[in-house]
Specification:
With 104 residues, the chain is mainly alpha-helical. The protein contains three helices and no strands. Helix 1 runs antiparallel to helix 2, helix 1 runs parallel beside helix 3 and helix 2 runs antiparallel to helix 3.
Length: 104
């Protein structure tokens, strides 16, 4: 026999709850990856040998990668403000996948 009692804050449709849990897992893994990547790039820039020539393309590339990873992390934080129980799971998952693909 099914209970008609609803838990506060839980989606009524079990599929939406599972979607929310999967999306949160994906978001968490992506956040950890981006935070680690930004940290590694920060460390690499800090340890970059000096003096630095103006035409140093390698340092410019590192700075661009760091800026991109930081922007993606900021975008992820903005997505994190969405209520997973009410968000369109497919659209939010698509945004997270786009973030991941942009890191390659």
């Amino acid at each position: 026999m099914k209970s008609n009692v609803r838990m506060p804050g839980m989606a009524t449709d079990p599929r939406r709850r599972v979607d929310a849990e999967l999306i949160e897992s994906l978001r968490s893994a992506l956040r950890e990856y981006l935070e680690r990547r930004v940290g590694l790039l920060n460390e690499e820039v800090r340890r970059y040998p000096t003096p630095i020539a103006r035409c140093d393309d390698q340092l410019t590339g590192l700075l661009e990668q760091r800026a991109s990873a930081a922007a993606q992390l900021q975008r992820l934080h903005l997505l994190g403000d969405q209520d997973l129980a009410r968000a369109d799971g497919f659209a939010l998952a698509g945004e997270l996948i786009d973030l991941l693909l942009n890191q390659r």
